[in-house]
Amino acid sequence: GGWQHATYASAEVKDPQRTVPRAMIIGACAVTAIYLATNVSYMFLLTPAQMGSSPRVAADAIGTVLGPIGSKLISVAIFISTFGVVGIYTLTAPRIYYAMAADGVFFAKVAEIHPRYHTPAFSIIAGSLWAVVLILFWGTFDKLISYVVFTDWIFFALGGASVIVLRSTMPKAVRPYRVPGYPLVPLFFVGTSTWFVVTTLVEKPEQAWAGLFVLGIGVPVYYYWKRRAAASDAAGPGSA
């Protein structure tokens, strides 16, 4: 995951029709290349059995070359790199809550912009507090990641499938970017995403079912806010 976050700030990007696809493609290719190179290096330094039983593969792999000091240094480097991820989520994820509130399907407070910094400050705070709740609930980073990634890939699969559906239902719509290799590429993506979801459901049922439970709660909540927004629109601008 991560490549999709380029779309969250598309409304604030110059020439998004060109910039956002390029950012997603270049970013995904760069991460894939680094990920494959890293895993190949692990295979040269550790046996498959060692990798399978290790909770810290990177640290153990570097430790075989540089010893205990190298193992600790790589652990510190990984810890520091997580701040980059935090920065990405801080800049992008709150815009989802902000957009929902602006569309009338979430608490109006979340759509407020900070008078000085011109950022969705309350949305950022709300998202941060929810992250703290999830960390306290799951207790370990591994469980939290499985819970979050499982729900992520459900929507990735739906997003890929929507490309096929919209191509059929809206054939004349303006499309600044067209998927090469259509429909094989989106079908492959949907299949891979579905496989990932099913695998997580089998291997990590606790986190997977928790994710489905939260999504299930979101369905009636969404329709409640949607009806409320529709009623507000029907009453006119003075109803607020």
Would you kindly provide a written description of the structure presented here, covering whatever features stand out?
The protein is mainly alpha-helical and 240 residues long. It is built from eight helices and no strands. It has helices spanning 16-45, 48-53, 57-92, 94-102, 121-138, 141-169, 184-203, 205-235. It starts with 15 loop residues before the first helix and ends in a 5-residue tail after the last helix. The model has no long low-confidence stretch (mean pLDDT 86).
- Derived structural class: mainly alpha
- Tell how many strands the DSSP assignment holds: 0
Shape: globular
Please state the average pLDDT score: 86
Tags for this model:
240 residues, mainly alpha, 8 helices
Provide a compact summary of the structure.
This protein has helices spanning 16-45, 48-53, 57-92, 94-102, 121-138, 141-169, 184-203, 205-235.
Topology readout:
Layout: H1 16-45, H2 48-53, H3 57-92, H4 94-102, H5 121-138, H6 141-169, H7 184-203, H8 205-235
Helix pairs in contact: 4-5, 6-7, 6-8, 7-8
